[in-house]
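Action item from last week, closing it out:
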Amino acid sequence: MKRRYITYLSCTVLACYAMVLTAISPMIMKIADTFQLDIATIGILFTFTFVGLTVFVPIGGYLADRIGKKTVLNVSVAGLTLALIGFVNAPSFTVLCLVSIFFGGFGGVTESMIGAFVLDLNTEKPDYYVNMTQVFFGIGAIIGPMAVGRFLSVGLDWRAAYTFLGVPLAIVAVIFLFSKTKNITDHHVKTDFDNKTLRLSELFKSKGFILLCFAMFFYTGSEVGAWGWMCTYLEESFLFTTDQSTVAVALFWFSLTIGRIFCGWLTSRFSTVRIIVVLALSSAFFTLISAVVKSNIGIYTTVIAMGLAFSSQYPLILSYAGRMTGKSSGTVFSILTAFSGIGNMVVPFVMGVTGDFLGMRTAMTVPVFLFLFTGMIFIYFDKQHNKGLNQ
């Protein structure tokens, strides 16, 4: 019973993090207006956020395999809450960017460690439980943009809107900090540390693991770029109001969450590799359609299709990596999350610059190529299956 309680509490922490992370999309132009910035400049905010993730996550993974995932999570959840307070009180864009480093860093450690931590608690169904953490992430991602969009539409300043949204995170963080898990997780820490297959030198000798790192870079950069700029794209190209654009983002996350639930069912019936191939190629197709469609009903339909296609690529890549390396260690998860952070740092920035010079329709084509690369990597894994790679 306690195992399940800690599992769902951890997932709730992730949902609250998703709320505050994805709420940036409908607020991005409000933040730009506050500091009098153009699209390309405000895009740097994504860069600083994921610089923090890229730097903090490997450190968190290293420490987790030595002092325990729960200890690292306690620090990261507390740090995330404090960073959010600093974010809404930043007096200048420079300070906002600096705070974003800590927001992204502690948030990235929280997300990567919760995946590994939940697997430690529930080793009997690895694909199911990693996928479940991302279902909770999706639920938070639905609530965040809609809540902030509503707050903004009734006249609240973005700082006040973000403060209201941060209250649930602060409450759940306190509960998590005081939860006790010593009797149900300590033995996993020792096993992770002692498993020589998790040494960095061994991991980076594996061609398969390196390809997985690139897959995480391509996928997560594309996902964050797509939803991060979605509101701006809809408001620029379709003249959507704030309410309309936030509804579209919520529909995206709702369909993504439904897709993750459905993919959880598919994992017990089909190859993980082939599921990822279908999702990646579908993502490329529907993202391309989103860049050329002209009607409101067309873009709403395409946004829903994008969510379904994006759905379980992230958790399935993580769980596949866990099986390839033989463990769900903090080191493995943190390296993959660091590569996702680099993607999150680079791709949204490139999309912002592209949008500033060529328009957001053109910017929305950038993820298309990266999804195709992701699909090609897993087509390679599928072909190599009979040569010894695990599925």
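Closing note: The CA atoms of residues 63 and 74 lie 12 Å apart.
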